[in-house]
User: Which sequence fits this backbone?
């Protein structure tokens, strides 16, 4: 073999380690999953929306609107009697529809008098994630197109109507039913209001988990690489003190980092808030001090879980390089719930996905703020119980590992054992 | 009184038998050396005695404490210096000694640190970060760390590894001195001159078995050898 070939062969062997291969494959899988999700969004955009309507006016313009609905959506309820509103809402909910549209009395008459015709929209909102609001966006388009049909008719047949009204012949009042609450806003506005819960909080928590996990895995790896661990383990100190000490130190530094990142990120996000501000508290969507404490407990326990899991993985690290590979599951487990929380609402997930998201201990503080805004204490408290158990079990396993040979001997595969024996 | 009592010690790594049933005693104030070729089981034996590894079978007692039952008590009276040990790079030499001293009786902390500084003999460099130390300086710091606590039993794996002749001699002198003051020393070394100079008794270990044991003088007589190196080559052959 030539010198060149010899060097190339050696370099490839050095570079193609699990530490370089695994992240590439995982990133490919992530991009694949995102691509598949995007196809799903496109399909949802192309889906015909499911609606119900009550045409209280039952006149020319209102009939143009309802005809458009009949032709361009799946109508699961229609009536002309306002007293059937509750039944209509039930039907829409049952058929997993998005909205009950009520065209109010004197709709056509008002338009002809240059007064916008009134439409009441009763939305059924399933979740506040980015993906959850797609269906309501589709309905918004449907309503706009229906209104445009009225405009066209006005322009073609009634030249006396004011141009402004001809172009915008309707006015609407939105009411959204979301998580057992009735909110006088459209789903899009609600989702916008909850954007900080949907994006800001999961990102911060993900960063906190990744940085803290990185610190503790590196600490374990450096203890092994710098050969300080053996000395530490022969000192008169309990294994639990070593484990707790490392976790506490990383938690303190991690929280410090989180505060710094949170400050920077809040300034960053404020830069994007150009539009009119809607006070979330005005609609009863506020957190009490008790609820903030619950979020704090959830965050603290998740941090402990992240650190414990990282430390457990760190016990398998041989050196700093291998620690980077071992950190990868933590990154993945932090990113999955982050994306899930950003794009979908926990309540709208299928049972299998719900179980996966719940089982990842890092999901809980990401979901907690939104859940508590809508008084979903069951999810938050069960999450706190689960993360407590997860943390206790993981720390117990670490303490057990610290008491066994595994911490120093690592893998017990025969090949490595032979190598280890030769080194003695 | 025996400080170390090892009986039929077996240590396996999975299916690999590293130590195959060795027995020996070490008395108080004695310097006992384990010598043998690479992979003979020396470091494994030292790691077991220093509570780092669990016992597969057999028993080890340190000052009457059963190693399997009371590892916590044993850690209070021993000090282990691994062959390739390191110190925390971001700490100064002094801060490292203070960190270690904090695990022991608080009343003696200052005394321990002073002793560690004295043994390390790093002068002003003791206040510099460990990261800036040469290999020899690090080793002296670690020897200082191991001996500053005045342990009942010091377990030293290649105590002079990486040191130049002068530093190695100084460490050997320190080990002798500390043994005279009552500390029992269990050490392993590849340096036969060191073993001959330091040890009251030695055990030759090969393939996990002690194949010879005695004072250097007796072993040299038995094998009609001029030095321990010759004994070693004759026994291990």
Assistant:
């Amino acid at each position: 073999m030539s010198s060149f070939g010899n060097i190339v062969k050696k370099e490839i062997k050095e570079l193609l380690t699990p530490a370089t291969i695994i992240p590439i494959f995982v990133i490919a899988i992530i991009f694949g999953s995102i691509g598949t999700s995007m196809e799903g969004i496109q399909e949802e955009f192309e889906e015909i929306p499911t609606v119900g309507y009550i045409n209280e006016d039952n006149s020319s313009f209102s009939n143009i609107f309802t005809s458009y609905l009949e032709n361009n959506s799946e109508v699961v309820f229609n009536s002309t009697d306002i007293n059937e509103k509750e039944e209509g809402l039930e039907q829409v909910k049952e058929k997993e529809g998005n909205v009950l549209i009520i065209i109010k009395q004197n709709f056509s008459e008002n338009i002809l008098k240059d007064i916008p015709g009134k439409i009441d929209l009763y939305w059924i909102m399933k979740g506040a994630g980015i993906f959850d609001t797609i269906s309501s966006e589709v309905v918004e388009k449907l309503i706009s197109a229906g209104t445009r049909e009225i405009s066209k008719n006005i322009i073609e047949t009634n030249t006396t109507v004011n141009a402004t009204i001809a172009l915008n012949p309707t006015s609407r009042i939105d009411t959204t039913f979301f998580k057992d609450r009735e909110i006088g806003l459209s789903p899009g506005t609600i989702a916008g209001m909850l954007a900080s819960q949907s994006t800001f909080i999961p990102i911060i928590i993900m960063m906190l988990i990744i940085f803290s996990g990185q610190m503790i895995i590196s600490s374990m790896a450096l203890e092994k690489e710098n050969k300080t661990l053996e000395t530490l383990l022969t000192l008169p100190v309990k294994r639990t003190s070593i484990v707790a000490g490392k976790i506490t130190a990383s938690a303190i530094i991690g929280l410090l980092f989180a505060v710094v990142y949170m400050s920077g990120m809040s300034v960053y996000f404020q830069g994007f808030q150009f539009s009119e501000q809607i006070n979330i508290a005005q609609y009863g969507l506020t957190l009490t001090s008790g609820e903030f404490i619950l979020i704090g407990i959830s965050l603290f326990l998740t941090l402990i879980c992240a650190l414990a899991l990282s430390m457990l993985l760190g016990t398998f690290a041989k050196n700093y390089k291998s620690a980077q590979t071992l950190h990868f599951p933590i990154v993945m487990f932090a990113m999955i719930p982050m994306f899930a929380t950003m794009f979908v609402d926990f309540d709208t997930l299928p049972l299998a996905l719900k179980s996966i998201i719940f089982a990842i201990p890092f999901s809980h503080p990401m979901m907690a703020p939104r859940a508590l805004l809508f008084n979903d204490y069951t999810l938050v408290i069960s999450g706190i119980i689960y993360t407590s158990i997860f943390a206790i079990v993981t720390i117990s396993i670490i303490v057990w590992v610290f008491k066994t040979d595994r911490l120093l001997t690592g893998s017990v595969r025969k090949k490595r054992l032979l190598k280890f024996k030769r080194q003695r | 009184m025996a400080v170390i009592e090892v009986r039929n010690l077996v240590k396996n790594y999975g299916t690999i038998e590293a130590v195959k049933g060795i027995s020996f005693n070490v008395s108080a104030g004695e310097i006992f050396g384990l010598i043998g070729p690479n992979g003979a089981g020396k470091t494994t034996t030292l790691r077991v005695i220093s509570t780092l590894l669990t016992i597969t079978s057999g028993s080890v007692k340190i000052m009457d404490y059963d190693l399997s039952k009371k590892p916590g008590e044993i850690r209070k009276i021993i000090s282990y210096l691994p062959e390739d040990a390191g110190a925390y790079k971001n700490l100064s030499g002094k801060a490292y000694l203070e960190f270690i001293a904090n695990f022991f009786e608080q009343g003696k902390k200052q005394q321990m640190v002073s002793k560690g500084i004295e043994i390390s003999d790093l002068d002003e460099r003791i206040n510099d970060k460990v990261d800036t130390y040469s290999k020899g300086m690090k080793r002296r710091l670690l020897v200082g760390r191991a001996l500053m606590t005045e342990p009942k039993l010091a377990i030293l794996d290649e105590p002079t590894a990486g040191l130049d002749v002068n530093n190695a001699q100084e460490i050997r002198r320190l080990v002798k001195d500390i043994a005279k003051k009552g500390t029992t020393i269990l050490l392993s070394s590849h340096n036969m001159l060191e073993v001959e100079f330091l040890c009251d008794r030695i055990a030759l270990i090969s393939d996990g078995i002690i194949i010879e044991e005695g004072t250097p003088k007796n072993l040299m007589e038995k094998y009609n050898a001029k030095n321990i190196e010759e004994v070693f080559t004759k026994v291990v052959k």
Observations:
- Chain A is about 65% helix and 10% strand.
- The interface with chain B takes residues 226-228, 230-231, 233-238, 404-405, 408-409, 412, 414, 417-418, 420-424 of chain A (CB under 8 Å).
- Residues 239-270 of chain A form the longest helix (32 residues).
- Residues 75 and 118 of chain A are 20 Å apart (CA to CA).
